[in-house]
Amino acid sequence: MGLPAEKIGAANGETVWFYSRLPFGRHTYAVRVGPDGVMRAIEQRLTVQNMQKLVAGETTAKDVRALFGPPYRVTRFARQQRDVWEYPMYNQVQVEYNLFVQFSYDGVLREALFLREMRNDVGGPADFK
Fold it and tell me: How many CB atoms lie within 10 A of CB 41?
């Protein structure tokens, strides 16, 4: 799998290694490694089930980073005082979507938007030339 995109310390001395396939693969794999260096599990983290764990006003940027790993893109909206992390992913039936997670400057989740990728839709940007 190569070098991980990021490593984050977790409970019980474990470390989570994130292997991102963004933006084209729309997957981020988390490999949990125990304190003894032995792999415990591999899981795909960019799922609708994990997205449903996000709670506006409670979830922090640190929580999101530990859940999804590094975002594909980070955008700052200075006038709204928000940082937006983008995660390209699939819905339950493998249709391309983008998850936009918005944080206020204090690192608290304010809004999460799950929007369908329009480029493949009839009448979408690919049809306008």
Answer: 11
